Amino acid sequence: MKTLIELNTTFNFKWTDGQTWLVLGNDDLAKKDFFDTLATKKVVQSGEIHYPFAKDYLDATPIGEYRRAADRISYISFRHHFRNKSNISQFYYQQRFNSFEIEDSVKVIDYLESLTINKTGIWNVDRVTDRLQLSELIDKPMISLSNGETRRLMFAAALIKNPEIILIEHPFVGLDASTRVAFDALFTEIVESGIHLIISSHHREIPSIVTDVIIFDKDAMPKQRKIDDFKINSISSQYSDKKQFTTDNIKPLLNSKEPLRYNNIVLMNNVNVRYGSKQILENVSWDIRQGERWNLRGPNGAGKSTLLSLINGDNPQAYANDIILFDRKRGSGESIWDIKKKIGYVSPEFFQFFPTQQTCFDIVCSGFFDTLGLFRKCSASQKKIVLQWLEATGLSGEENKCFDKLSISQQRICLIARALVKSPPLLILDEPCQGLNTEQKETIKGLVDQLCADSEITVIYVSHYPEDIPRCVNKSLSLENGCVVANV
């Protein structure tokens, strides 16, 4: 049996031909280190790692050319590394909603055709656009893709290299139900094409192609199992990040100042958004009253992100539509910062754009200024409030940790605390449970339920998973192809 990768460190891991691995467990940082090590992004400090799968490729290195094992590995992580046409400026969050910025963004088809294709494999541009459901997106600027569409493009980019190995962090993140089903069949096709997979995922979403499992639990040696011998309850919950959120912790912070009263948090009448010939939203009407808790749902590309951008002040097309936010019509003289100070917002894109080397404290404190990172000094009173929210949300003691050193669930809670420090009347949570295990999801849901029980905060909650929606959310708006198909 051919050995692909052999890792000999504090534990031994041997990956052989015919194995498709699933990575599970509640130690998020250990799982990330494991992936980074296999991908050659992290140097082995004690022990050694070998890449027998790349031996023939490395031995055939032409004179004057530099080769490494990483050339034959694709790594699909949470963060993408797309750039604009000038290749000198990384994307920033609001850029995706500005027409003049979109013009500087590479189209999907141009990006795919610019990639170096290993012609010894079967994965070419036509095949990846077909299998990843990108055919209707090929002329779309990359920057305007939704979270789920971006994930599919990342898969396409990984496949088009025709690598020998693909490492995938949470492949189902950001994907709607139908796309998740299609991906299970796609994984089988990928393996049958000769590519080897190792996947981190939730234990309730195990691709049928998986043969072996490695489990990283905190304060325990990694456990390796055949999938047929794997039992879900073998994953320890003893060290989960689940916290108990109580009225004593949160209620004083939520009620520290008299809440402002509004007739309409959001009132949209026949809203339309178009980019070129592409209709993104068509005659959308939505009335959100203070204290209501809404679930915004719809498949990938339905228009959810665009709809939220109109509310959050990021999309300039709001001025061309009949939209009232917090009892004031858009375009009547308010700035986007007047809007943002009333909204706490968490979205999948935030994980792309936040400076990961800033501390947990700085990230939460940046919520006072509505910036993606802290770039000014906080006052003494603001610092006090930050520490109170860190205590209330179970992050006390983590304030000096860099954002990328927090566990995934701690990162999510950190960004929710950032959204809440200014006591906003509206909280928007876009897929806050992405990549979390069951215990961690219950933590987030419990926090939202507690917030709603102790205040009149208005909530818009987005999720592709019905089981991830908190109990307090009792109203729903559904989009499909930019149109409202249900409002209950």
TrEMBL record:
Sequence ranges assigned to domain ABC transporter in this UniProt record: 24-243, 260-488
Coiled coil: none
GO terms assigned for molecular function: ATP binding
Gene3D superfamilies listed in its UniProt record: P-loop containing nucleotide triphosphate hydrolases
Pfam family, one: ABC_tran
Keyword hit for Transport: yes
Entry keyword set: ATP-binding, Nucleotide-binding, Transport
Family label: Belongs to the ABC transporter superfamily.
PANTHER family linked to this entry: METAL TRANSPORT SYSTEM ATP-BINDING PROTEIN TM_0124-RELATED
Annotated protein name in UniProt: ATP-binding cassette domain-containing protein
